[in-house]
């Protein structure tokens, strides 16, 4: 899987984040090289991220990221019909955001390594109800060809365990073909049976064609 460097602005749009959403403790789960935590903290928010790749340290990740950015751009070029550019405006603007997010991530990882926890779903080394909002970008559903329904259920239950508020997951389509995940409906039914509130919401962001919805899971 490519380690992506998504920006704070992208997170705002992907998860329909308002200022009040940043009042509590926010967890970026499987954060990759996102600049979200760095920018959120610069604004005074309390934020942290988890990703198994953080175990490698800042120097190794910095070396890897240039190649991952190029690989991601090549994938988009090879599948141009699967993407729309209205939100970014241009490929140059998207790359500018990603490069800026990458720099912010590496700088913040070096400055505040304790904000970046090496951990992999469906097991998070965090206390129950220890964060207010969990954001999960481009892992669940995106990789449904590799991660099955049972894994998704376990991952969502674990994110719900550590949250005292809400879990937001984006997007709800597969990476390979952009198609909806076949087991989404059955999974939502299981989560509701487990006592979780689930809602599919449209967001003000679309890049992968058809990927403009997130799943919110409310923790009771």
Please, could you describe this protein's structure?
There is one protein chain. The longest helix is centred in the N-terminal third of the chain and has 21 residues, at 58-78. It is globular and about 45 Å long. A seven-stranded mixed beta sheet has the order 3-2-1-4-5-7-6. It has a single domain (8-218), classed as Vaccinia Virus protein VP39 (Rossmann fold, 3-Layer(aba) Sandwich), CATH 3.40.50.150. The chain is an alpha/beta fold and 220 residues long. Helix content is 36%, strand content 18%. It has helices spanning 8-14, 36-42, 58-78, 91-111, 149-162, 184-193; strands spanning 25-29, 46-50, 116-117, 131-137, 163-170, 197-202, 213-218. It contains six helices and seven strands. α2 (36-42) links the parallel β1 (25-29) and β2. The mean pLDDT is 95. α2 (36-42) packs across α4 and α3 (58-78) runs antiparallel to α4.
Summarize the structure.
This protein has 220 residues and is α/β, with parallel strands linked by helices.
CATH class: Alpha Beta
Low-pLDDT ranges: none
> Total number of helical segments?
6
Total domain modules: 1
Strands of the largest sheet, in order across it? 3-2-1-4-5-7-6
What's the β-strand tally?
7
CATH homologous group name: Vaccinia Virus protein VP39
Order of helices and strands: HEHEHHEEHEHEE
Sheet having the most strands: 7 strands, mixed
**Helical content class:** 25-40%
CATH architecture: 3-Layer(aba) Sandwich
Overall 3D form = globular
Using the coordinates shown, work out and report the CATH topology: Rossmann fold
Report the span from N to C terminus.
Answer: 33 Å
In percent, how much strand structure appears in the residues? 15-25%
In round numbers, the mean pLDDT is: 95
Q: Radius of gyration, rounded?
A: 16 Å
């Amino acid at each position: 899987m490519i380690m992506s460097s998504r920006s704070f602005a992208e997170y705002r749009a992907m998860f329909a984040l308002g200022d009040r959403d940043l009042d509590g403790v926010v967890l970026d789960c499987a954060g990759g090289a996102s600049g979200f935590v760095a920018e959120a903290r610069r604004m005074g928010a309390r934020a942290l991220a988890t990703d198994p790749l953080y175990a490698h340290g800042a120097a190794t990740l910095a070396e890897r990221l240039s190649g991952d950015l190029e690989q991601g751009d090549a994938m988009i070029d090879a599948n141009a019909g699967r993407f729309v550019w209205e939100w970014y405006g241009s490929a140059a603007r998207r790359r500018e955001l990603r490069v800026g997010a990458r720099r912010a991530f590496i700088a913040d990882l070096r400055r505040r390594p304790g904000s970046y926890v090496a951990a992999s779903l469906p097991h998070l080394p965090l206390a129950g109800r220890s964060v207010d909002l969990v954001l999960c970008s481009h892992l669940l559903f995106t990789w449904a060809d590799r991660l099955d329904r049972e894994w998704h259920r376990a991952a969502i239950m674990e994110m719900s365990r550590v949250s005292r508020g809400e879990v937001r997951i984006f997007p709800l389509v597969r990476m390979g073909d952009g198609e909806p995940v076949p087991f989404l409906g059955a999974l939502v039914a299981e989560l509701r049976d487990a006592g979780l509130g689930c809602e599919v919401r449209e967001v003000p962001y679309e890049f992968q064609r058809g990927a403009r919805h997130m799943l919110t899971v409310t923790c009771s």
